[in-house]
Design brief:
The chain is α/β, with parallel strands linked by helices and about 500 residues long. The protein contains seven helices and 19 strands.
Length: about 500
């Protein structure tokens, strides 16, 4: 073999091994509508990831295969006939195979009544998962579902002829999960039988958590041994949404024994139809919301029971069942009769008739209250007025205190110059004169202190005028003179 042949073989082998190991992203947030195989080869050759949506056209004929695509950022869907202007016809799509697909935002297959196989064996993550294959024109055939690697989904809704629904690795469904072969649950109003002839068996051995589950129709088996909790992922229980049931099973066909051995947290259960035996074993049951009636007489094993309601509920049936399952010991609970001490805190029934007894209402003291209000209003108004007046006076005093006094020297100089305020003239004191004549001016020159002796003491002791020295001891002072005279007055000083 020549050298060019070896080179050609090497190039072929290189690209052969490079193809499946190299990721190529195609698309640009666009919708890719595929009507035939040529569309796939022209748009997806060499691509491993598609940015956008991929839709199988309604006029696709035969099996559909999507090779090498591992991730679709948008939805992988089938085109429906709804809203089409052309004549309605049944889709000829018979199978969907996408064995390399591992992740997709939404998986929605609708209006494909001839679809018999869905093989997406490597799919692990999906948000919206919806398969509604029935058509108003043709009822769908039995569908073989092969989705064996699915781990989690935001919501699952399936309606159609699925003999066996097997999700062996599915662990969580954050939203609701609905599975039925009863067309009435999806609003079917056509002329085909509401209940399909094909029965459905459900196998989910790893499912641990779901927000809500609804199963209806001709069901032959329900296997969910690991299902433990049913609540919202953000911590709020579904009972806050009073219009929705958390676990609803409505069966037709042969009687079926339903068992959820690990379920410990569920608040709203509705079991009806062909049940061969009622619920007998549970780890924990919580009933909350507007609970008006309940029946748990079939229980034979229960570790925890809680009934909480904002209204009134009869707790006697619950207490009787709890006492039967857990016979009372010598000690009893403070709140619930016949509750064994070793199970204190595991049983609670909010019977408000016993825990919060109603008290008789006393007549409202209208007269004392009216009198108090009548007196209190004037007192309150007076208090407000006094407070306002006090603040007003205080503010006025503060304003006056801020006015500076006049300058003394400047004021005296102004008055000396004839300006400023004119002071009244000085009028000396005069003695009492005769009629029509003013008295003489009195001059205050007698600075002697008054005698400490009573009147007449001087005359009795010698008629002299005793001079009392002043506090400074400045000597003797004459008893007094009348202004204008030079002679000594009466009395002798020494």
């Amino acid at each position: 073999m020549s050298t060019p042949n070896w080179l050609a073989i090497a190039v072929v082998l290189f690209f052969t091994f490079l193809g499946p190991t190299t990721a190529f992203q195609c698309g640009n947030d666009t919708l890719l509508l595929l009507s035939n195989v040529d569309d796939i080869e022209r748009n997806l050759t060499g691509c491993t990831s598609w940015l956008g949506d991929i839709k199988i056209a309604y006029d696709w004929n035969g099996p559909f295969s999507l090779p090498n695509i591992t991730n679709i950022t948008g939805y992988f869907t089938t085109e429906t006939y709804r809203g089409k202007s052309y004549d309605l016809k049944s889709s000829s799509l018979t199978s969907i195979t996408a064995v390399d697909l591992e992740s997709v935002d939404g998986l929605i297959f609708e209006d494909a009544p001839l679809l018999s196989t869905i093989n997406i064996t490597r799919l692990k993550h999906v948000n919206s998962f919806r398969i509604l294959l029935d058509s108003d024109l043709v009822p769908n055939t039995d569908v073989t579902l092969i989705i064996s690697s699915l781990l989690n989904a935001s919501s699952i809704r399936m309606a159609g002829n699925f003999p066996f629904v097997d999700f062996p690795k599915l662990e969580t469904v954050e939203g609701s999960m609905e599975m039925t072969n009863n067309r009435s649950f999806i609003g079917y109003d056509g002329f085909y039988p509401v209940i399909t002839s094909t029965s459905m068996a459900i196998n989910m051995p790893s499912l641990y958590h779901a927000r809500s589950i609804q199963i209806a129709g001709n069901i032959t088996d329900i296997l969910m041994p690991s299902l433990a909790t049913m609540s919202r992922s953000d911590g709020y229980y579904i009972w806050l949404e009073y219009d929705r049931k958390q676990l609803e099973i409505s069966l037709t066909g042969e009687p079926l024994a339903v068992s959820f051995p690990s379920l410990r947290n569920v608040t709203n259960i509705d079991l009806s139809g062909a049940l061969s035996s009622p619920l007998s074993r549970a780890e924990s049951i919580e009933l909350s919301g507007n609970v008006t009636d309940y029946n748990i007489d079939s229980l034979t094993s229960l570790d925890r029971l809680s009934i909480i309601t904002p209204g009134r509920v009869d707790c006697e049936p619950a207490t009787a069942v709890w006492t039967r399952i857990h016979p009372p010991s010598n000690k009893t609970s403070e709140y619930t009769s016949n509750q064994p001490s070793e199970y204190t805190g595991r049983y609670l029934c909010a019977d408000f008739r016993k825990l919060v007894p109603e008290k008789s209402k006393k007549p409202f003291p209208a007269i004392p209250v009216g009198l108090t209000v009548g007196i209190g209003i004037p007192v309150w108004l007076f208090f407000i007025f006094a407070l306002w007046h006090s603040r007003k006076q205080k503010k006025k005093a503060e304003e006056i205190a801020k006015i500076p006094p006049p300058d003394y020297d400047a004021e005296m100089a102004a008055r000396s110059a004839g300006g400023g305020e004119v002071l009244p003239g000085y009028e000396p004191r005069r003695s009492q004169g005769s009629e029509g004549q003013p008295g003489s001016v009195i001059e205050l020159i007698d600075m002697t202190r008054p005698s400490p002796h009573p009147p007449g003491y001087e005359a009795a002791t010698g008629g002299g005028s005793t001079v009392v020295p002043d506090a400074a001891g400045a000597g003797d002072v004459d008893a007094g003179r009348v202004a204008g005279g030079d002679g000594p007055g009466s009395g002798v000083g020494s």
